[in-house]
Amino acid sequence: MRIDVITLFPEFFTSPLQTSLLGKAIANQIATVHLTNPRDFTTDKHHRVDDEPYGGGVGMLMKPEPIFAAVESLPSLPKREIIYLTPQGQPMQQNLFKELVNYDQLVLICGSYEGIDERVCDHLVTREVSLGDFVLTCGEIPALALINGVVRLRPGTVAKQDSLKFESFEDGLLDYPQYTRPPVFRGWEVPEVLRSGNHQLIADWRKQQQLLRTQQRRPDLL
Predict the structure, then answer these.
(1) Which residue from 11, 61, 159, 204 lies 20 to 30 Å from 213 (Cα-Cα)?
(2) Which parts of the chain have pLDDT scores under 70?
(3) Does domain 2-151 have CATH number 2.60.40.1120?
(4) What burial letters (b/e) apply to 157-177, b meaning 16+ CB within 10 Å?
């Protein structure tokens, strides 16, 4: 899988893309991430990537020319999605990651300032994705979240593939509570059923806990 990030701040990605499982996956070529700065495609002497919005308003908009030129400079693989990270997009959810992991190429456009010229969305972008119902200073943060969520599903990123089957949202429910040693910490005990060795009882308890936790915290999922 090839991931291209269109960003004014490529240095934003330096540490996250070299850290933990994501860093190992990229080092092992499970996915490749390429950073492209639209400022490199400006044609004026000041290398401007933003301008005032028509009709007035607060702030500046990213101009369409550098973004189009940056994306058009990239190789185009057969199954490609061009994604704009914006609060107006579809929510970033596990099912989205499971869909995108099957693509050959993801092109992620990170907005800055007050956003981007709408012509980019109308004539270049194929999908808009949101990290949540809030506004951030830039699109780099949701881009990193999307990269992490997709790459961790690629075979070889997570050593034990079964661990991907038993986690929040995989069956429409939140994850069950989990415990490790010691069995008693400051007087708080690990539930006895988890120490019983009875796999059926443990499985039943976990399912009950999933239902209870989802009902309490995310009833919209039920």
Answers:
(1) 159
(2) 159-168, 170
(3) no
(4) beeeeeeeeeebbeeebbebe
